[in-house]
Amino acid sequence: MKIRIVDAFTDRPFAGNPAGVLLLDSGPFPAPDRLQRLAAELNLSETAFAHPLPPGGEADWALRWFTPTTEVDLCGHATLATAHVLRTTGTADGTVRFASRSGVLRTTAQPDGTLTLDFPTAPLTPVAVPPGLVEALGASPLSVHDTGENVGDLLVELADEAAVRALRPDFPALASCSRRGVIATAVAADPAAGYDFVSRGFFPRVGIDEDPVTGSAHTALAPFWSARLGRADLTGLQASARSGLVRTSLRGERTWLTGNAVTVVEGDLLTAL
């Protein structure tokens, strides 16, 4: 069985967010503990497992995502990586429908080589600053929003891009502040630089101190910044050490996320799942 590592939301190797991708045979998924052990072995932000579904249904492939410590409900970069593998191996092209824990997700290959994810828009609810958040994050928010069940993060608006880039969180303390993680964001200091807003994502509660590029977080960042900037189509920069760009397009209850992907490792899994 082939196993691949794909850098997502980037057009060059060793940037963006690396995801493991395994395309399985048809039939049910292996036992969850087996999938979890392999995800822990790879030790990437997420590893995606997909298998084909019978024709004629509402989806073409079943898809699950695991961090090194747990299964998650929604993952953008590993979905992008899976669609990239399907396309580059000639397994599927055009629009692919994935059955997931967050419903049916669609990916579409674009003529320019990018891939677009069609994800549910995260509902945003203003909330009070949780106890301990300021100390754990090391910054005082301008606003805090809950992003709903599917995403499960706190969206934290900071004063400016410099404040986002300067964050050095206390990760053990931050793990108690949200259901999944904390997304820190601010408007771009210079929109001429090629992006409209900046973010960083911290997820110590699911085994990821800082995620390089978080696709699912942009289903919350898109409506947040579209409302403030007055445009449906924006570009976000996730300013991790690896960095990556996510083009967002707000379409009501759906958000389109567009980016590139690059396969950097391909090998054989030598043990059965």
UniProtKB/TrEMBL annotation:
Pfam families: PhzC-PhzF (PF02567). Keywords: Isomerase. InterPro entries: Phenazine_PhzF-like (IPR003719). PANTHER family: PHENAZINE BIOSYNTHESIS PROTEIN, PHENAZINE BIOSYNTHESIS-LIKE DOMAIN-CONTAINING PROTEIN. Belongs to the PhzF family. This is PhzF family phenazine biosynthesis protein.
